[in-house]
């Protein structure tokens, strides 16, 4: 006989661990989206919200409020959202779903510093509580430039929106960058902390919402095959690459002065490093995973000599993918004497028993050969006692490549005999691919993350401690770079400046061509 | 591209499949399962289409066994649809003539993707004892559809008496959106539920399963009432604070009414066959909740019969 637990519905008698068909559905709530006119809102957030609704994962009592500096009425915003959904949603468009969703859509025009606008916002969410039954639960998504955070957070506090009563909840979502160095990150955190308790703050690093990144944990910890060789005895070095083929484009105002390392290495690449390097968590809870990531990040060591252990570059005009593209300094909105790096690479160590002596090479850049993000574990070479060096001349080191995007999957490279009468070994690949059609219906990273926010499930969000540890790693590099001249130029469409290649050549290694 | 192999053997089919695979690069490495559909000439078109659509989420080798006139000489015709043309997996249509239809397992065995799970699906109903069926024996998961039987409820109840882990029925799959919505209404605090109602068209085992599920999980009496449909039209959880009612009159949009709350609407469309199948293929282990619910339903019906 099971316990009578019905009132309060905790645990819900209709849910059971045996019943895996039932999806997690968010409870009644309002999502307030600041900065709805931005690219991210149109291309990712609004479509993701529709896709969630279409998959039946949003509650009947759901409200969406847009806030922006536009002279719009509700229906103007609804139209913008409709266009965004029609163009960018991943699931088929269904009139019924859209109608239910759009009935809960509101728009509040105003500036961040405008008291009246926030008072109107208060009235709007309260009205939604009344008319839609959203239960007084609000999530605030700050898709805004960081300089507006203080104003908005202050307003949320002043207007009383940040206050929750009874069992209703408040959550706030912030996007990277989480500061531009340790001090500013702590400052930002103090600001957020002042308004929202730590468990209500969700820092979005959309990389962590990607299936392939989550698969990294599955690959490591649900298999017996990889974990035994996942250490210094077998692995020679690790390469983590995030390359973009695009230039700075419309992000000039944000990007200049920030650069590739702060933009990408501090968050995405160090998070990937932590997931690759960490020990097995005790469980799959947010706290257990975070504990291991924090340990891994705490063990990260910078190279002794930053001049030879790091590299940076700035793209110059060149031919890329069949088109002539301008150099960084010629991009609109970039000062001609800018020393911002668009390519950054570094060699890090992880000082644990598992990884001592195994370099982790990180690189990222804009206007590189192609768009790719991957983690490659390169294994030691064999002693080759059986086959002579002629037979294995064509053989590289074994490697395991986890492709994060695009063409998500895992590749294992190893040597195989070339057919013929002579003994000759050449590299071949074993390949697992999520496949174009396979991922078509798998949720977009933002879908997963928005749902997690509305449910209140934090494992995929980096914690402040991880953010601060990452800045502790990066700050000395940034300081060194600021004092030592300019980034080295590299032509657009290439794989980075010579210093990037020398970084590995010094250790008798080379970058994989991804 | 489609390849026709009339009067063929499984060896020839295997070779043709390997050649096709090589021509698109790589072996059958991305296929996650083999789906065997046991069907007939009339039903295969819809079934294969649904399987192909579900294959976008679950790249699979689809083998459709089309059972033809058992009085003819034994023979095997094959139609191979190339991987990539209709989805990431390949589709093999096999027409089995004469006594071969009784030995379909011998045809299927050499064509299964190595190591990956096998799912058997009978879109037109299914055998009374799926796990004892020759094709069913090959499969880890056996999907039947009692909605297609002449007496759907009796069909479901009879089959559940032969339940074997891995059996499942699309009548149960059809209830998932309703169950998800009901479960989410009880994620929030609500009063003690004292009884419940499920209203649906007649001869709809999904509705009986839904009622049985509520009754078993909540330990309350659940009344199953008949409406003119379509499908399930209403569920009511009667709580101490008042009723929580979900109604769906048009098969598309539902309204949710709970005490002291505004009326809410939610899209709750009846789904397509391919969506049922995709859901089914998501979990390939035994569905214990289905087994418990269906057995509970069967016991209740048996008791009702005895007392009647």
Task: Label this structure with key terms.
heterodimer, A: 514 residues, alpha/beta, Rossmann fold, Dihydrodipicolinate Reductase, domain 2, 2 domains, 10-stranded mixed sheet, 6-stranded parallel sheet, 18 strands, disordered N terminus, B: 308 residues, 8-stranded mixed sheet, 6-stranded mixed sheet, 26% strand
Detailed description of the structure:
- Chain B: Residues 51-158 form the Glucose-6-phosphate dehydrogenase assembly protein OpcA N-terminal domain.
- Chain B: Pfam families: OpcA_G6PD_assem, OpcA_G6PD_C.
- Chain B: It comes from Thermobifida fusca TM51.
- The complex is a heterodimer of chains A (514) and B (308).
- By secondary structure, chain A is α/β, with parallel strands linked by helices.
- Chain A has 15 helices and 18 strands.
- Chain A is globular, with a radius of gyration of 25 Å.
- With 308 residues, chain B is of the alpha/beta class.
- Chain B has helices spanning 10-23, 44-54, 104-108, 134-138, 152-160, 170-173, 176-185, 205-218, 273-282, 288-307; strands spanning 2-5, 33-39, 60-67, 75-81, 91-97, 118-121, 141-144, 167-169, 193-200, 222-226, 232-239, 242-247, 253-257, 264-267.
- In chain B, strand 7, helix 5 (152-160) and strand 8 (167-169) form a beta-alpha-beta unit.
- Chain B is elongated, with a radius of gyration of 22 Å.
- Chains A and B meet through helix 3, helix 4, strand 17 and helix 12 of A and helix 7, helix 8, strand 14 and helix 10 of B.
